[in-house]
Write a structure and sequence with these properties.
By secondary structure, the chain is of the alpha+beta class. The protein is built from eight helices and nine strands. The protein has three domains: 54 residues, PGBD-like superfamily/PGBD (Muramoyl-pentapeptide Carboxypeptidase, domain 1, Orthogonal Bundle); 57 residues, no CATH class; 120 residues, Glucose Permease (Domain IIA) (Distorted Sandwich). Bound molecules: zinc ion. Zinc ion (ZN) binds next to loops.
């Protein structure tokens, strides 16, 4: 009697152990094999392959029909990765096609968009609000249409906006650092010698108004840091008066309009109602160091 009870306990604990082993191993065993998807197939797996190919930069329609064009794109995808280029999507191809999805990438995006005042919840959900914000940001920054966020959009997002600070008024490659500390004739400002047609960018986000007269095709940005930034002698203006621009946004091209003796960008910074010397600010932007506030910039010492 005693021993048979012991036997039952022993068998019972063995069963429990078996159950634990089964429950630990069974989830892996329960995953289905990668499906084979090939020419002639239709349905959601085909659409998924097509969307993922598009994600990897291939050009095709996600129509759920695995036709000749999809086959060609699968072969190209396989060739580029040294896989057997048979146009059949099996385990090797699937594992290279799929991408890890996580909400932190969207949170990173929402955090950046909020620098520009979109006021999104940082919830990791790529919902209609976030998509609309992306579309709007891209449109305002000439980054194309749609809500795809690629490398260029990330660059624009991280490089500008509140807390993102300031942008050089022209491409960094246009002039050496030594051009940003030159004094200006007569009054606090700076003249940057640039060929006509050089891109001009908003040093700081704000509202655009037009300036004329001796300034030629001029733009004044009443910026969100309390200062105003005046661009003179532009060859073209890419933003309308009244437009909100963000830091680093393309606003036109430099030129030689108005009272000017040669192609250059004349730039003024005004804060507290007085013109300031922009040199220190521009050098800090160029160097990527902490940018002094416009109100801290000197009002003299940059003229000759
Ligand atoms: Zn000047």
């Amino acid at each position: 009697m005693f021993s048979s009870r012991r036997f039952v306990v022993t068998v019972g604990s063995f069963m429990l152990t078996l159950l634990v082993i089964l429950s630990v191993t069974s989830p892996a065993a329960a995953i289905a094999n990668w499906p084979l998807v090939r020419q002639g197939n239709t349905g959601p797996n085909v659409a998924t392959v097509q969307f993922l190919l598009r994600h990897h930069g291939h050009s095709l329609t996600a129509d759920s029909q695995f036709g000749a064009h999809t086959h060609t794109q699968v072969v190209a995808f396989q060739q580029a990765r040294g896989l057997t280029a048979d146009g059949i999507v099996g385990s090797d191809t699937w594992t290279r096609l799929v991408v890890t999805l996580n909400n932190d990438a969207v949170r990173a995006l929402q955090t950046q968009l909020n620098k520009y005042g979109y006021g999104l919840g940082v919830d990791g959900a790529f919902g209609p609000g976030t998509q609309a914000a992306v579309t709007d940001f891209k449109q305002k920054n000439f980054l194309g249409s749609g809500s795809t966020v690629g490398s260029t959009t990330w660059q624009a997002l991280t490089g500008g906006g509140a807390g993102g600070g300031y942008s050089l008024p022209i491409p960094r490659s246009t002039l050496p650092r030594s051009e940003y500390d030159d004094p200006h004739h007569d009054y606090p400002a700076i003249d940057l010698p640039t060929y006509t047609g050089t891109s001009a960018y908003a040093i700081r986000g704000g509202t655009v108004s037009y300036v004329g007269g001796g300034c030629g095709y001029g733009i004044l940005i009443s910026a969100n840091d309390g200062a105003s930034y005046k661009y003179c002698h532009l060859n073209s203006r890419a933003v309308s008066s009244g437009t909100q621009v963000s830091t680093g946004q393309y606003i036109g091209t430099t030129g030689n309009t108005g009272h000017s003796t040669g192609p250059h960008l004349h730039l003024e910074v005004k804060s507290g109602g007085v013109l300031r010397c922009p040199q220190r600010m521009l050098l800090a932007i160029y160097d990527g160091t902490s940018v002094p506030s416009p109100s801290s910039l000197p009002t003299s010492g940059c003229t000759y």
